[in-house]
């Protein structure tokens, strides 16, 4: 058996000699599109071999026909043709172009660096038959701490037979024995509690291996799509209902993951949960009263260890839940996890991290400092408030290119007839319209450009026809309106203004930025070239941009596996400077300047 | 109002000007006998004024008629005549002669030194109306730790109103805020879990004041009177039933104490429980399997902090239970508490501490070391295995004097017709018989001494008539048999042998002993002169003997009030040398030599 790691998820799968990478990927739930169904015709299932090229077959004639020599040279292959041929560690990068996007909920983050120094560990010790001192002294071993929890002592008193030697598993949390078992593989569960989705990772705390990845829509969504409506509900009806919803969801996910891994929730000794400040408060049953009013103060920003049972989580009775620190009311532990996953705190040069959503969090490192802000970018990037906007589900145009003549090439999730446009494709189209001159830098559509695709819509405002009704699944034209463009301009201006303010504060110049990390599901599907074209971020070399997907989940998993990283997270949260944009005088000016395409520098 | 402290209990009561000390004592549950019902006739309600003689009335003519000039000079007064006349701190010693013994279950220990540095404390802090940082940072005060428990954060998030200044009570356990209340007086509950009785002390953790003292028969007694039968039951039926019994008992006592003090169990934030090793294990639901077999290893000897709720104790949800360390299978945390209460660890010279019961624990300090042993003294001192033996209940002869002619003067609990003899009176009688020559030093009754009180009983063995049936409540003679004398000889020999072995090991000579502490309910009623006469302890000056009653309870209360003392308890338990008598070769020889009256030195 050979192990294949799929990046950027970091998902590992066992492969048999002779299997194609596409087969391995599909079997293990890694999302690769393949319209021609493995016949090497469409060239869509491209992957890049990062490591272990010796262990895969040489490029076939079919691949050479589809892929350019340069691509082949860079290590790109068709996953339907590239087969495992001998043992070795194979690492494969699946570019977002090769993903269907149907599994957007399942996108995982890349683990940039793995540290394995978990807080929970297991030690096997032989209890001698003849015990002279106390039982807990009799099992003395240099690997065991002196402290035993009452629960572990109760178990020990029952399991130790008089006069019989016995080997037992001691589960240790930090410097305390918390359980005694005949045998056991201690597991951990990392949870990224998003406003929309909840993702969980079941991890073997000894090997560091991820045993199962699960996700579910956040059931709180029944009480509103965004954090504001969740807060409203909590203030009116009490926090308890929303608290129970998310705890139940975590319990179900954990059970599902344990079932998938052939384990029991009894073996889960630790959980790490990250989320924005509102999700954090609802999970811990902290009333979010003050999060509703400026200056949005959380109850606490400290990292917490609590008995998982005390908030209703059904893992082992001794399981702890660790929640990393928060930075502010609108910058939660998910951002701390982003920072941990991307290693921003250890990089030398200037770095920008942006996690795009309805609220976009921005972190900038520079001048030996770290600063963070949150900006209200609105839901346009997620397809809301866009005439034909939709999420990345079947029928969504998720990538688009505007040709010089105004025609549009696009990709649709599930290769179906289009039903709407995702935020990422909207950005592609706006960037394209600007490039080919169908839209000016103020964002106005050029109605006199000579393309019939630009017309005056029913509302009296200009619009751009992305696809005509003959080719859509909805029986009407799919268009991008002038108003849609304005929505995206406002959204990107909010992000860009926040970025500019942090960069100025830390004296970071765009040309010096060594890395731009784009985190979050939306960012993962966003075409970095289009994003730069519309001015979502400054002129940064594309090679310095990293799409890191669900970095929050990856950071949660990394902290589950490493006590050191928890310490770093605490330091980062204490050190980071929170910039409250609402109280920054320059914000309005920066915002206004960022509205044009590409904005700011072009001024 | 004036405060009167009753010693050796240390019980404090408020008194009004004009009240007699007897009235104050009775109102506050301090046990003083008064057969003449306050008419200054019987002279039984004698107390000694230790402090505050200026605040009480001068001796009346009636008192001068009853008390000797020497007694009066020493500060003795009739409590029925001695009245509070002005403000001041009055401290009164109630000698055991003035106690009825009916309340033997209520005997409290003397607190030798009070330290007030409790682990739980309250801090009042104003939460400002406008909060910029996190809520827990906003209440920052030099008196508050940085750490908040989740429970306290949940409360804080609900209690802090937006835009309103609010003063709140923060309850701190060690270095963590564990609760937030509008207002609250944090209480503690110290419990001495005896095999027979359970005593509880409700304490105000801020002032150190004892608010209520309660006690109850240990309900486990339904499963056997001694620790061996409790272990048997636990091994056959599981530990759970006995565990529940004692937890329920503590819950009831705590509720009763809180009701008496006008408080709620919600205000109890900490408990300290001491007991012998078996009681300790049953309380904590540790299976006592190994306590049944030599070498009697406990599961743990370490001090433990557990959430009280986790073992079913119904105090505040955040209440902790502290159990001090154990020394060995037969030397429990009650002995550690004895040591703490009597300050043995701080005394300079050689000291002996003995806690007499079915198992008698002995602690000796000397040569800069501490050593402890446990010896199986049996139940004779408690009246069991003695023909007319009984506990100190109504009708029990609890003190006796054998006159030169063989007649017996005695005191009966409740001044009733006698029904039997307590262990303490048995010791008085044996000592008396020896002194007046009616018994030789081997313990044999002298049948040819010319008193008709010594006769051959129905069993064919000699016996001594303590009271003839005309004067008893049972319609038959109350006698002390030759076998009874043997039982007491074996019991005292076991204690004396243990004491001798420890003294030799630490090079302690009887003449150098600075203090002999006699702990436990039985020891409190034992006449020290009689005890010395029969050789229960070596020739130690009477002024150096201290009857400290329930020192274990006092020690538990002292540890409830002082984190420092818990640290000392831990040090003491680690440092103390446990001597396992069964493995001491000299034990049999010492035991044999200690059987005669007075034993050992006389040889």
Question: Could you give a short description of this structure?
Answer:
Two copies of one chain form a homodimer. With 603 residues, chain A is of the alpha/beta class.
Description of the structure:
The structure is a homodimer of 603-residue chains. Chain A has 16 helices and 27 strands. Chain A has 603 residues and is an alpha/beta fold. The first copy, chain A, folds into five domains: 98 residues, Beta-grasp domain (Ubiquitin-like (UB roll), Roll); 62 residues, no CATH class; 137 residues, Domain of unknown function (DUF4445) (Nucleotidyltransferase, domain 5, 2-Layer Sandwich), CATH 3.30.420.480; 147 residues, 2-Layer Sandwich (Nucleotidyltransferase, domain 5); 108 residues, no CATH class. In chain A, the strands form six sheets. Chain A has a six-stranded mixed sheet with strand order 12-11-10-13-15-14, with helices on both faces. In chain A, strands 26-25-16-17-18-27 form a six-stranded mixed sheet, with helices on both faces. The longest helix of chain A is centred in the last third of the chain and has 24 residues. Chains A and B meet through helix 4, strand 7 and helix 5 of A and helix 4, strand 7 and helix 5 of B.
